[in-house]
Write a structure and sequence with these properties.
It contains ten helices and 15 strands. With 372 residues, it is of the alpha/beta class. It has three domains: 2-84, Sulfate adenylyltransferase (Roll), CATH 3.10.400; 94-186, no CATH class; 195-364, Rossmann fold. Strands 1, 2, 3, 4, 5 and 6 form a six-stranded mixed sheet that branches. It has a five-stranded parallel sheet with strand order 12-13-11-14-15, with helices on both faces. It has a four-stranded parallel sheet with strand order 9-8-7-10, sandwiched between helices. Helix 4 (207-221) packs across helix 10 (350-364) and helix 6 runs parallel beside helix 7. It is globular. The termini are far apart. The model has no long low-confidence stretch (mean pLDDT 90). The structure holds 3'-phosphate-adenosine-5'-phosphate sulfate (PPS) and adenosine-5'-diphosphate. Residues 203-204, 208, 231, 235, 244, 249, 252-253, 274-277, 313, 315, 324, 326-328, 332 line the site of 3'-phosphate-adenosine-5'-phosphate sulfate (PPS). Residues 194-344 form the APS kinase domain. One of its GO terms (molecular function) is adenylylsulfate kinase activity.
């Protein structure tokens, strides 16, 4: 028996099936035809006649009796009937969602994306749950504040459908759930207020000291939760066992980026201060974070001679003596950033450096202030 942990949008597919908005089966994408039918793609290697679907808490919620499969580069599509095993765990705004909401009066307007301004009129508005609870709560609050009726449509996964086709499908589901729509308004998906600050620089450049100062200043100036991903803690916990080869460093910084992006996705501020010596790993982190929030790269540009003169941990001396291999700046490369949002020079005290970063943030990534 094969088990599959549902993503938030796949969980929405089941919710739509329970509500009768989608048929209770998965179809292969190419044979789905015109009527909206959910598709399910599992990682390569999945096989078996029955797939058990697990929710976020790993509780089995449904089974798929697999009738057909199609294997592609990115995974295995499975088609078959879906049987629910138990009610799905409670969703946010349960009374506004297709299975349980009261019928709407009048033709609703569907809002895809999360535009700051509502469409004109007085009619009901259907907002889409994109899987981000905070964004959904904001969208519902905005509609209610305008005195309009609101309903929530869970966004289906429809992995293989993108762009206008996807919006068309979502529109059809909204009509099936809440009645014929009067309009569909599509706006850019607005990213949240989450932020990641990555301080990069040589060992001994001052990254950790400045990161701590910055965390303190930010905690006083924003209502957002501020998390400092301390370098030593990361190496002791998240990246325990990793060394300093190229592969290990890539994995280390990838893990930091993954955690930091999660924090940003949930509206928090993450500050991380690994050496992050390769341009490629910093670019990957920026790309990952910018899908969900803002990213600010700070180069702590203390020159090698200064770091080496500080040599608080005696590591440079050991690296020069050949006792430590692959030491950044000595026997391993440090790619000077060409895309830093802020550059800190060695003549700045840690406090001044933190103030410089704070000032830059107020321009490139303003945060909700503690007083507002
Ligand atoms: N070979 C080698 N090269 C560089 N640094 C080394 C090495 N071996 C151990 N150390 C110590 O580990 C700290 C750097 O770890 P990071 O996680 O920041 O590095 S990386 O981003 O994965 O490249 C770094 O700490 P900081 O001085 O705080 O930067 C060093 O003390
Ligand atoms: N702006 C600065 N001026 C002088 N010394 C500093 C400055 N920033 C950090 N230091 C000192 O340099 C040493 C290394 O700083 P640290 O923050 O641990 O660097 P990193 O995290 O980049 O390895 C510490 O002893 C720290 O007190």
């Amino acid at each position: 028996m094969t088990e599959h942990r549902l993503t938030p949008l796949e969980h929405h597919d089941l919710e739509l099936m329970v509500a009768g908005v989608l048929p209770a089966r998965f179809a292969l994408p190419e044979s789905a035809g015109d009527a909206p039918v959910a598709s399910l793609r599992l990682p390569v290697g999945y096989a078996g006649a029955v797939v058990t679907l697990l929710d976020r808490e790993a509780t089995p919620v449904a089974v798929v009796d697999v009738e057909r499969t199609a294997t592609g580069d990115e995974g295995v599509w499975v088609a078959g009937e879906v049987t629910m095993l138990r009610p799905l765990a409670t969703f946010d705004f349960a009374d506004l969602r297709p299975a349980d909401s009261a019928p709407v009066v009048g033709a609703p307007t569907l809002l895809i994306g999360d535009s700051a301004s509502l469409p004109e009129g007085t009619g009901p508005i259907v907002v889409v749950d994109h899987g981000d609870p905070r964004a959904l709560a904001d969208a519902v609050a905005r509609v209610r504040a305008a005195g309009r009726e609101v309903r929530v449509l869970p966004e289906p996964s429809f992995v293989s459908v993108t762009g206008d086709d996807r919006n068309l499908l979502i529109g059809r589901l909204a009509s099936a759930a809440f009645g014929e729509l009067s309009t569909v308004v599509v706006s850019e998906h607005r990213k949240g207020d989450g932020l990641v600050v990555l301080l990069t620089g040589l060992s001994g450049s001052g990254k950790s000291t400045i990161a701590k100062e910055l965390a303190q200043l930010l905690r006083r100036s924003t209502v957002q939760h501020v998390t400092l991903l301390d370098g030593d803690e990361v190496r002791a916990m998240l990246s325990k066992g990793l060394g300093f080869t190229r592969e290990d460093r890539l994995l280390n910084v990838q893990r930091i980026g993954w955690v930091a992006a999660l924090i940003a996705e949930h509206g928090g501020v993450a500050i991380a201060a690994p050496i992050a010596p390769y341009a490629e790993m910093r670019a990957e982190m920026r790309e990952r974070v910018e899908k969900v929030g803002r990213f600010v790269l700070v180069h702590v540009a203390t020159p090698l001679e200064v770091c080496e003169a500080r040599d608080r941990k005696g590591l440079y001396a050991k690296a020069r003596a050949g006792e430590i291999a692959n030491f950044t700046g000595i026997s391993d490369p440090y790619d000077e950033p060409t895309d830093a949002d802020v550059v800190i020079t060695e003549d700045q005290s840690p406090h001044d450096a933190a103030l410089t970063i704070l000032a830059a943030l107020s321009v490139v990534a303003p945060l909700p202030s503690a007083s507002s």
